[in-house]
Amino acid sequence: MAVFSNRITSLFSIDYPIIQAGMIWASGWPLASAVSHSGALGIIGAGSMYPDVLRDHIQKCKKATSRPFAVNLPLLYPDIDKHIAIIIEEKVPIVFTSAGSPSTWTKHLKAQGIVVVHVVSSATFARKAAAAGCDAVVAEGFEAGGHNGREETTTMVLVPAVCAAVTIPVIAAGGIANGRQMLAAMVLGAEGVQMGSRFVASEEASAHLAFKQRVITAQEGDTKLSLKKLTPVRLLDNAFARQVQEAETQGASPDILASLLGRGRAKKGMFEGDLEQGELEIGQVSALLRDILPAATIVSNTWQEFRDASAAINSF
Residue 42 is part of a domain; what is its CATH number? Predict the structure, then answer.
């Protein structure tokens, strides 16, 4: 018997409508399998993986848990066709797509029996995802870490707008790290939540410990949305982020910003632990995080907070 039942838990065959985001350099098979095994939905982040590495993570995740898990697939990835082929060959049940048009691969994936969810930053993009045949959408607000929408629409505004625009289930993301925030998102119409920053600060996340420690010591205002001339990304304050900010203030062109970004900045910061010259992608909600916990504890804590908050609201 399901712990909780709605369209999201039914769609993914999970116990709790909690989804772990596919964060670059943080979401390998140890995290995805731990989250899925706890009754939520774990996601392998393919954005930082070569095709053979992705296959290895999928195979290890299948061995570590019998529960459903997903792969997050940025559609702008150079080897996207190879990733798609591996996902189909390995019979991954769920795919979350982002950073591209959902019309490109959705029908192909669904023809293989795969559930497809697309990440959107506006009601307009949500309608396009629904028209492309996606089974659900993630409405990701401006507060989120990593690559973000240019519209800068906050989760509080975006979620009800997307819910009004489409009839497929909506998952809220951006600025959500506990059960009270989860309840607020579901009151706005979402049927589940996706959490990234909270799971970066987990024991199983593949991010470098130095990065995790920096995340849990972050304060309000320590993150800013940068590189809007390229692809908007929310970064923690460090020497690299200040270089970017100075260049943008001086009106740097996209080419200059791209050369400043270079190659491997995200890996340098989040995976290798260079806290000054690396790219440190994290959400605003990092200002509320103060501990590194096992993924299963994060899921159980979030669910208990959600239940407690629901009870408190009902008592009003």
Answer: 3.20.20.70
The predicted pLDDT at position 211 comes to 97
Report if pTM > 0.85: yes
149 and 69 share one domain: yes
Same domain, 243 and 293: no
Cα–Cα distances (Å) from 132 to 74, 168, 223, in that order, read 16, 12, 34
Spell out the SS3 assignment of 182-201: HHHHHHCCCCEEEECHHHHC
Q: Which domain holds residue 184?
A: 7-207+288-309
pLDDT at 140 over 50: yes
236 close to 218: Cβ distance less than 8 angstroms: yes
Q: Answer yes or no: do 226 and 169 share one domain.
A: no
CB 115 within 8 A of CB 11: yes
Burial 5-41 (b: 16+ CB within 10 A, else e): eeebbebbebbbbbbbbbbbbbbbbbbbbbbbbbbbb
DSSP state of 48: G
